[in-house]
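Async update (no meeting this week)

Hi team, since we skipped the sync, here's where things stand on the single-chain job. The sequence we agreed to prioritize is pasted below, unchanged from the tracker. I ran it this morning and attached the output directly underneath so nobody has to dig for it. Comments welcome in thread, and please keep replies under the output.
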Amino acid sequence: MRLILDTDIIVSGLISPSGPPGHLLDLWDEDQRYTLISAEAQIAELMRVVDFPKLRTRLRPGLVHDWVFTLRRFGLLLHDLPTVNVSPDPNDNFLLAIAQAGRADLLVTGDKRDLLALKSHGGTAIVSAHEAVARLQGGTA
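Output:
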């Protein structure tokens, strides 16, 4: 299975490893249950977001850099993304472009207003972290 984790899911998983986002990170990093798809645009967004003062105090120094190193080494990083203009929030279109170019099965997000409201993009289902964990474990959400 091929997944994209929205930046909010990655940050949530790094902050709180015991919740569904953290479980998704473990299922990739430790169990290799899925292929994680990303792009440099998302890594840049992640590095920008984790530098916000309210997040800097909640993340162990070096944790994000270690995770990005692992993503670059073991994830599937895409280049030359297509232009996509589908999301109500233009800042989310790069995630839909990654989904399209990477033929992702799931785009996992906590963005209820914009991305989850779309429900899908092409052949990619857009789901919550809870639903993604259920699907990866063979259940239904």
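Quick observations from my side:
The chain has a mean pLDDT of 94.
The domain at 2-136 is CATH 3.40.50.1010 (Rossmann fold).
Reply here if anything looks off.
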